[in-house]
Amino acid sequence: MSEIHAGPLPQAAPDGEHHVGPLPRATRFGNATRGIATWWRQHRDGRRAAKAAAAVAPAELRAGPLPQADPSDEHHVGPLPQAAHTATPRAKKSWREKRWERRRRRRFTEEVLGWVLVPVILLSGFWAMKAGLNAMGTNFTDLIKGIKTAFAASGKV
């Protein structure tokens, strides 16, 4: 047993099993209430003791720089050494998980390319057709008029 204790050690009965002294009385609500009340008293007293210990006496407060530490003091002087940074290793992914991630990335990329490239291809086709017709000296309006005239001459329209 430790040499340090906060008062006399509790005395046990000669047979080492039974309590010495008066037995605690039961409350009108039963023994469970006594446990809660005891816990609350200890909790409350502990909080009061912590507040009292945290309160600093005005005489201990000093303004200005701190005094220099004695070289023989056991406290560390100077910069602290760099702590070793050990990252926890990640769990290695199985081949199924890797394949699933590749498929997910591929599908996402295909969707993005589809939404971007399809309009670009359609617009560039329109502009290429327009440029080709301008190079031949005509445009879409004249082309459609010519098609209508050709169908009208054949009697289908």
Low confidence ranges: none
Mean pLDDT equals 77
Largest sheet: none
Oligomer: single chain
The coarse overall form would be: elongated
Helix vs. strand class: mainly alpha
Taking the alpha carbons of the first and last residues, their distance comes to 114 Å
Succession of helices and strands: HHH
What would your notes on this structure say?
This protein is an all-alpha fold and 157 residues long. The protein contains three helices and no strands. The longest helix is centred in the C-terminal third of the chain and has 41 residues.
Task: Annotate the secondary structure layout.
Elements: H1 31-54, H2 95-135, H3 140-154
Short description:
The chain is mainly α and 157 residues long. The chain contains three helices and no strands.
Key descriptive features of the protein:
mainly alpha
